[in-house]
Amino acid sequence: MTHCFPEAIIKPLGDSALIVQLGEGISPSIHQKVQALSMLLNTYPFDGFVESVPAFNNITIHYDPVLVLNHLANNQPSLTSFQIVCSNVNELIQHIDDSQKLEARLVEIPVLYGGEYGPDLDDVASYHNISPEEVIRIHTQSECLVYMLGFAPGFPFMGGMDERIATPRRETPRLSITPGSVGIAGKQTGVYPLETPGGWQIIGRTPLDLFRPDLSPPTLLQAGDKIKFVQISPEEYHTYKEKKR
Amino acid sequence: MTVKVLNQGLLTSIQDLGRYGSQKYGVIVSGAMDKYSLRVANLLVGNKENEGALEITLLGTSLQFEKDMLIAITGGDLLASIDGEKAPTWRPVLVRKGSVLQFKSPLKGCRAYVAFAGGIAVPEVMGSKSTYLRAGIGGFKGRALQKEDVLEFGEMNRLSTSLFHQLNKRNNDFTWAVNYDALINLQQTQTIRVIRGTEFDRFDEKSKRTLFNEPYTLTTQADRMGYRMEGPPLSLATEFELLSEGVTHGTIQVPPNGQPIILMADRQTTGGYPKIGQVITADLPSIGQLQPTANIHFKEISHKEAERELLKKEQIINEIKIGVRFKGLYL
């Protein structure tokens, strides 16, 4: 079955990359299309394909224009590299609906909430006029979806957090946030993989490493994963940390 | 046998052509700021062009050689000297055991590259020797070089060995050097060619004209990650929120203050600011040679012309490659 995607738009991002727009806004159904095209590209890479980077509703394709043209048959000298890549990508787009839906992984992220590990938990609670325990309960009940990774290695952009605990960023960002910190910014929740400055409300910390450059893939989470946060005790937190050593 | 770092200078790190294939995990590309200079440096010593080499920033770096070595120095002219004598650049050079290579100060450009025959012996991390400074991986122990560090090197291939012996026989006399003029521009006032960015049409009419008519200056916030520019502010026709999405080397994004930022080698993989333009790939190495206070004029060209410019430069690199091979193996 071929299904045409009238909503798919290809925009050049300079002369060595392009963005394939597969819809507007953030939704699990558009995310499915992004995931499907991502998989198709990695399974059937065109000549000169470098890599693809999925985002909320589009996918950026990096390619090497020189390699694309080197593979070109001599009888099509007037085509540009961009035109060739577009036709390759359009071909793959036709198969988005045919491709098998990927079974989402469910990843549990253990979190030690509050105290020195989650210094903003109380602020988030009082912002919503609920108890810190209630914030934790709502946070651990949400099932989140990792739409994309970006900003830092292994940093998940997630959707699906219960909006009852949506909280604006801190007025003054912290200069340094400890890796593993779990935070809330607006309707988003996320985990910091590296020590960075940041303005998110930090409500807890996970003992897991989100970025692990020695392993393949180098990140704990990947686009398409489903996430559940699980509350752990200080003892459990330290047991996790010990195990890593 | 090795090279010892006597002084690390401002910022000296190992870079190659970048760490590709992991951007979907949020792992940045890194790599040389001036890729043409890195590629030529490698070619001149018989290496693969994507071998890891040293990227030296502005001044201060000093290296001591503990054996005879074949190297090449390219990129910006940072007044390199070997034992106090002006060092030959853009050609293969034999450095003698005990000699000291020093970079004094920038005469032209901002970054010099030193390639070593056989390549620098550091492990590849995720397929690259480039240093990812912020995450502490790749390169030399995941960091910039420091005083007292000791570099080791790989085995020389047939071409490198042949170049080495020729230079040894002729007492380092080499009558040929690469003319880099057609590859990179080391001036601090440059016209940089740009294709329209993905959100170009979202900017107001005045801003669209301003970008290509008014000069922009590099501020002191210019590093391997990006260049903050200063000039007439650019504004959107109507405010809108852009979700984070892929960006690339040379993306010109405009944050709410209206002052454009050019994303460079250590850029993040994704960004959420509107993209007004995109520096063409063929001009990226030239902007890698800019210093703070440099002046840029952006000039619009078509996507097709950008591809043509890239192919032209690729042709030059190819000629250099063939030239070195010929000199190395047949003379």
From TrEMBL, chain A:
Q: Which InterPro entries match?
A: CT_C_D (IPR003833), Cyclophilin-like_dom_sf (IPR029000), PxpB (IPR010016)
Signal peptide from the UniProt entry: none
Q: Which SMART domains match?
A: AHS1 (SM00796)
Q: Which UniProt keywords apply?
A: ATP-binding, Hydrolase, Nucleotide-binding
Q: What region holds the Carboxyltransferase domain?
A: 8-221
| SUPFAM superfamilies (alphabetical) | Cyclophilin-like (SSF50891), PH0987 N-terminal domain-like (SSF160467)
GO molecular-function terms, A-Z: 5-oxoprolinase (ATP-hydrolyzing) activity; ATP binding
Lineage: superkingdom: Bacteria
Q: What is its EC number?
A: 3.5.2.9
Pfam name, any one: CT_C_D
NCBIfam families assigned to the protein according to its UniProt record, in alphabetical order: 5-oxoprolinase subunit PxpB
What is the designated name of this protein? 5-oxoprolinase subunit PxpB
Q: Which organism is it from?
A: Bacillus aerolatus
TrEMBL record, chain B:
| Species lineage | Bacteria, Bacillati, Bacillota, Bacilli, Bacillales
The protein's matches in SUPFAM superfamilies, at most eight in alphabetical order, are given as: Cyclophilin-like
Pfam families, per this entry? CT_A_B
Q: Which PANTHER family has this protein been placed in?
A: 5-OXOPROLINASE SUBUNIT C (PTHR43309:SF5)
Kindly indicate whether the keyword ATP-binding belongs to this entry: yes
**SMART domains annotated for this entry?**
AHS2
Q: What is this protein called?
A: 5-oxoprolinase/urea amidolyase family protein
Q: Which GO-annotated molecular functions does the record name? A: ATP binding; hydrolase activity; lyase activity
Q: Where is the Carboxyltransferase domain?
A: 24-316
Q: Where are the transmembrane segments?
A: none
